[in-house]
């Protein structure tokens, strides 16, 4: 099984780390191919970054289709371009926020999210509402670290994430925590050990869900709104997308 993991931001170091985390958790028959868009923001920390990165995600899906991918993961917690990505393939496409919410709801009745910056909290809140998980999430907390601090300032960032998770554990009335950034993919076990309650991380959760869907023989439905995009002309910068 070829599992194409798309880091929607363009930081190659983060793509490598996320890919390594995915490979460690993957089943022996799963090959992880980790890529990032050719163009776009180096980190995704707001609505503007998301809008630009979503185009890059769709371009990576197009490449994955040429290379015969069996499933895809979009590894940014805002799930940028997820529904658009699903329109472009019959393979399953999993967003890491979506995967994290599903898995957390299977092992706890209530969870909190610990993300990077407060300003990204509204993105997670919108996703909880869109996916029907608002009722399961008690609180969205931020460690107040820029995304690239997870790369450049790893130890300090980890300390802040652990502190924030401990506050969530003690104050939120929850059973589990969902980590809210793709850049936290390799931190799950360390944080769980330090905090002592189940920590769900979206990249690793998405790998196992993607393997399950492929094992079940299920892919993205082409009946209804996730059908391939209607052929039409695109103009200007996007003329190459005309079909
Ligand atoms: C993210 C993420 O997962 N990757 C990125 O660049 N920005 N979102 C977040 N809330 O930190």
UniProtKB/TrEMBL annotation:
Bilayer-spanning residue ranges: none
Superkingdom classification of source: Bacteria
Annotated InterPro entries: Asp/Glu/hydantoin_racemase (IPR015942), Hydantoin_racemase-like (IPR052186), Iso_Racemase_Enz_sf (IPR053714)
PANTHER family the record matches: PROTEIN DCG1
Family assignment from sequence similarity: Belongs to the HyuE racemase family.
Protein name: Aspartate/glutamate racemase family protein
Species this protein is from: Chromohalobacter beijerinckii
